[in-house]
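Margin note from the TA: students keep mixing up input and output lines. Inputs are the sequences; the output is the structure of the whole complex. Example:
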Amino acid sequence: MHVPTYSDVKTASEIVHRFAHQTPVLTSESLNRITGAELYFKCENFQKGGAFKFRGAINAVMSLSNETAAKGVATHSSGNHGAALALAARKRSIAAHVVMPDNAPDIKKKAVAGYGAEIIFCTPTLETRESALAEVIARAGATEIHPYDNFAVIAGQGSAAKELLEEVDDLNLVLAPVGGGGLLAGTALSVHHLAPSAATIGCEPEGADDAYRSFHKGEIVPSTNPRTIADGLLTSLGERNFAIIREKVDQIVTVSETSIIEAMRMVWERMKIVIEPSAAVPLGAILEGKLAARNQKVGIIVSGGNLDLENLPF
Amino acid sequence: MHVPTYSDVKTASEIVHRFAHQTPVLTSESLNRITGAELYFKCENFQKGGAFKFRGAINAVMSLSNETAAKGVATHSSGNHGAALALAARKRSIAAHVVMPDNAPDIKKKAVAGYGAEIIFCTPTLETRESALAEVIARAGATEIHPYDNFAVIAGQGSAAKELLEEVDDLNLVLAPVGGGGLLAGTALSVHHLAPSAATIGCEPEGADDAYRSFHKGEIVPSTNPRTIADGLLTSLGERNFAIIREKVDQIVTVSETSIIEAMRMVWERMKIVIEPSAAVPLGAILEGKLAARNQKVGIIVSGGNLDLENLPF
């Protein structure tokens, strides 16, 4: 298994830097007061496509040879990765084929279509999704870009923490949400190299705690019947992601739905920025006291800001 | 009547600069594409207290003599000015007395109380409000700081446009919402001086179009029974505000409720920032085609981001 290291994050960062936003790091006096910590929010909700996913997607797309790229890229995604890959493909003027469950939210379908990708709808089961993806790959010769279990994707996601650590010195903790593990693994690579004394902590909803259980069992425990408002964090860990997480992540903590919603609301009200539930999980962990954050300098990767405004939890 | 000029804005800016945030100017590729204009959003939703109001309040509070300041400040406000004045008074360690209608939203009451001001509740009529204010002024010897019809407040509000114009060159239009006229008058002073070829345009809800009617009639037409979701824009124009607006504002346009809500939603979804309905009125005017904004460089003062998340229009 071919797993990226920090040097791959560094190479990826050069590509990411050319196409993605260097997102701002925001602070909030009132959230510092409430938590007793010094919080630095790396705002990937302001990233192109509204989430960190564009970093990995653009790195994956730009890393292909001309010959391979010409045949297009393909993926399955019900969320931000599909839109990010569509946007990345457009930047290279190649085709993107995105397999989506037919019950995906309209807003996600519109985003993918709006970036010019071909959408292949399937029923929302693993089997039909995989056969639909295999079919389009066979038909077009497209290269599959997995949402997280992909070398170039993980390396690209690590660029967010790299930027954060280059901007803010002496962080004690760096927090990222964990779903498939692309963001957390990439973050861990950067933290481990650039701030070796800082701890990397994965933050996961209680109702989708497969990464927590995998971390403690030492092998991947699949996500079965996850239940959480954090719709970006439903999937099981990828192989490459777990290999990095086992080795370089210090802790995984779980967070209740109440704390996720409270954190999301607090960020909207106090910081006046729109973040999605998945992005609120790290602050939720602090509010819930799952972390010794008091008097610490804490970096938080705010993963994205895409959500349906007509279906808010408050 | 003593009315500020640009030189007062300049003096105020030095005070504002010491205590307030220099808020960011944000752009959005997708909103530029949708509107065909080049938009620059001066984000006062990120200002202390969540609105531009802190600029005027801090200038007014810091401009008082020590002797006068020691007796405290007072105002009536159901909205952002009360919180801003409370916060400004705390910065000078003096008392603030805020008369609020007893039906004001809980979130506003909490904000004012949270900044340590004394709240005097009254029934929501002009008469009881004025008598309650007169009573506290007589009792404490406090100085009244009117929310908009106040020399130092207008000068302070002008600092937002000053910062915008110093950061972005060659704007063709500068847009601000208009309620009592503090922000619009201050903006006009800065635009008139710093970018004389640019037009200053006031943007007002159709359902509270007293500034539009005042502007065309040449005298203040009171706001009677206003109906709009833009709860910061319900009041009549102040005398000082109107004197400046008559002379230095180029146009006032009115905007439908549908366009205000559409604009607010678009900013939340595309820019991932939380703005209040009043702050969405200028973009609403552009979306509605009330302005010749196509191919123009347009500055927009985003007035604030305070609103009740449990009571959203979408």
